[in-house]
Fold this protein.
Amino acid sequence: MDPKSEQGRQESQRRRSARIVLRVPLLVNVVDSPPESPWESVETVLVSKHGAMIRAKSDFQVGDTLDIRVRNGDRSARARVVWTTSQVTSGGIELGFEILEEEGFWDVNFPPDRWSEKSRPSSQK
């Protein structure tokens, strides 16, 4: 088996909740940024009950605390950057963040936490 595939499989087994493809328009900025620091407009690539993956042009670092806001302005929360890629693409870097507060931020019904192949219906295996 390809080592990258194996690593991805192991990571998916450690996840706290399922990921779903969902594009949510967000504005993001580092907490306590200078007032002149612009908010970056991004979209989610994947979301989970506990966080999301986005592509960003800004140089966010692992450990940064972010203000995240849905672009229409009806929801906001704080999140922590938990991983970033080193490879820069035309869309920027990919990064993952975990939401620190605001249970149910995405307003989506997710599969149960700690899901697994065994818990999926047999028609989806």
Q: What stands out?
A: DSSP finds one helix and seven strands in the chain. The first strand starts at residue 20 and ends at 21.
